[in-house]
Write a structure and sequence with these properties.
Helix content is 78%, strand content 5%. By secondary structure, it is mainly alpha-helical. The protein has a single domain, classed as Protein Binding, DinI Protein, Chain A, CATH 3.30.910.
Length: 169
């Protein structure tokens, strides 16, 4: 009985080994590939310009608020404002402060949304090229070396050149 189990186990291991050896694996470094796609560079430049515009607007809002605080402090120091008016003006400035904080938060979300809008079609294009290379060359699996999961790979299984050709770069 023991011998039969060993024979069956050995047969299963051999079948699994044959099955695995029949599969074709490849790998690619998507981060390196993305850095070489001209449209990605252009999209990143547009995102950076947009981020800079929002940052400049935010800085202007901060400077304006600081100026209003300083003007209010000068009125208070010179005795040009009643305590009741000072309190009302201080409340207005606190509301403006909240609006600036909301603007900062919404700006960050706008940048994320802009990035997604500009980069998603490019990621989809790259994925399509990878899919086509895999289908055309009989790869069962293609791993991404940029994720740090790939511990070893034979250089002949690198499909980067094939994908670059497919993308025209």
């Amino acid at each position: 009985m023991n011998r039969i189990l060993k024979t069956i186990s050995f047969s299963l291991v051999m079948l699994m080994a044959i099955s695995v050896s029949a599969q074709k694996f490849g790998y690619i470094n998507t981060q390196e590939l993305i850095s070489q796609v001209p449209e990605v560079k252009e999209a990143n430049s547009n995102i950076e310009t947009y981020r800079k515009q929002l940052q400049d607007k935010y800085q202007n809002m901060i400077q304006s608020l600081q100026g209003k605080y300083q003007a209010l402090e000068q009125k208070q120091a010179g005795g040009d404002i009643s305590p009741k008016m000072l309190e009302a003006e201080a409340l207005k400035l606190k509301e403006e402060e909240k609006k600036i904080a909301e603007f900062e938060q919404s700006s960050q979300q706008k940048i994320v949304d802009k990035s997604e809008t500009l980069l998603k079609p490019l990621r989809d294009k790259i994925q399509t090229a990878i899919d086509q290379v895999a289908a055309e060359n009989g790869f069962d699996y293609i791993f991404d070396a940029s994720l740090g999961v790939l511990l070893y790979a034979d250089k002949t299984t690198d499909v980067s050149a094939l994908v670059k050709t497919k993308l025209g770069i």
